[in-house]
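Handoff note, outgoing to incoming analyst
You'll be picking up this chain. Sequence as last confirmed:
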Amino acid sequence: MTAGFQDGLLDAFSGMWLAVDPQDLRWRTDTIIRGLTAGTAEPPPTSRHLHNNTEFLMTLEQFPAPSDVAGMYDGIGQIYGSAWGPNKHYGYWENDADDSSIEEATDRLTDLMISGIAAQAGQRVLDIGCGIGHPALRLVRACDVSVLGISVSHVQVARATELAAAAGLADRATFQFTDAMDMPFPDGSFDAAWAFESMWHMPDRGQVLSETARVLRPGGRLAIADVIERGPVSPEGRVVLDHICENYAVRSLGTVDEYRTALAANGFVDVEIRDISDNVSRTLARMADAVETVRDKLVDLVGKEQATSLIDFMRLSAVTPESGYLFLTAVRA
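Most recent structure output, in case you need it:
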C-alpha cells in the first residue's frame, strides 16, 4: 500500500465524515485499508496508536479496540450505506419466494427485534451499538418508548442525534458515546435492551451481558441479533470466518451454545434462540449487488483489484453455511 494511495483515500473519505481530528481520521483510514485488502489482513495488532490524542497499547486481549470498530463503520460503512440504504444491517426474507425490497427486509428484521423486547409505552430501552439510530427511531415510533443508544463511534452518535432531531424525536431518542463493556448507568436503569448486530464486535460478550444484566431491571427483556459461527466448520468455511474476523473488527464469532452459557451465567432466564440464517443469508448477495452500483467510486478509492475482492467476498460469504445468524430473547431474572 503506497503512501500516495493512502493519502488519496484519506482525502476522499475526509469529505464523507463529520468533523474528525486529522490524526484520528488517518488512524481510521489505516483501519479501513486493512479491511479492504482481502487476503492480506494483518492479525490483531500489538502496537501503539495515537487516537483522540491518547496513546494506547492495543493487545490481543483488547482486540477489537473501540476505535477499531468505530473506524470500520465510520469508513467502509459509509460506502455500504451509500449503496445499501439507511438501515445498515441485515434483512429478513420469509422464504425463497419472498421478493421484498432491501428496505422492506431490513425493516422486517427491525420489527422482529421490536417484538422481541415487547416494550410498553413509557418504558426506557437501551440500544447497545446503536449505529446511526434508524432501528431506535422505528422502535420509538412503534412503541412510544424512550431509547438511549450507545456507540463507540462519535460520528455515529452525532449522526443519530441529527436524525432524531430531524424526525422530531429528540426528546425520546438520545445517543451517547459509551463502551458497552463499561456502562456508566446505575443498576436497573432500563426496562429493556437490545443489541442489534453489535455483539460480534465485542471483545468479551460475557462482560457485555454482565453489564446489560446490571443495568436492566428484574424482569427486563433483552433481544439480540448477531452474526455467528455455525458448526461443523469445514476448512473452506474456516477461511471465510477467519477473514470476517480479521477484516471487520471482530475478535471471534459467537455460537448458539456460547450464548446459552453466557446468558445463564449472567442471570438471564426464559432464553429463546432462533437460527434465522436462511432468512437473512440473501443479505450479502444483495449488498454485493448494491455495492456493484457504486463500483466506480469504490475503484477510485481502493483500486480495481481490491474492489473486486471486496464484492467477491460478500458473495462467497452469502453461500458459506458456517456464517450464520441468530435472533434471541431473554429475561433478566
